[in-house]
Amino acid sequence: xxxxxxxxxxxxxxxxxxxxxxxxxxxxxxxxxxxxxxxxxxxxxxxxxxxxxxxxxxxxxxxxxxxxxxxxxxxxxxxxxxxxxxxxxxxxxxxxxxxxxxxxxxxxxxxxxxxxxxxxxxxxxxxxxxxxxxxxxxxxxxxxxxxxxxxxxxxxxxxxxxxxxxxxxxxxxxxxxxxxxx
Length: 182
Hints:
- The chain is built from 4 helices and 11 strands; from the N terminus they run H-E-E-E-E-E-H-E-H-H-E-E-E-E-E.
- With 182 residues, the protein is α+β, with helices and mostly antiparallel strands.
- Strands 1, 2, 3, 4, 5 and 6 form a 6-stranded mixed beta sheet that branches.
């Protein structure tokens, strides 16, 4: 029986053309956007007994937002803008935001495909920001650009732009009858 990849089953518009338009992004945040909090690489769920993503209807207070990451625009899901926010520095963020923490690898298969997909994207972007606060070329601090999809080196002599990695990966089994190639 084929088990689908529940993190990639849902297709949505990443709306790259909006990322550089700060006025449009502010407008999207104020008009029905969904905010996905990520806490220390863990997803926040509205409930664990029947896993359901915690999608906030407004940006959490500034005290919850990691200022180094900011708010990351993920794209449009069914026409609704979705943003990720890193809340990992706030010890009590899960409880105060009304969520329960869970490792996405443990609960992803129990979520609706669109929820698993958007939570995976949010976690990946927050994780990338955590790991790229400094330039890989010269070591200077980097700053967020393009709604969280680019970080630029602050050193004027370097100025290197950094982008999230996209690493395609494939796992396969080559077999004939009861034999497999190792």
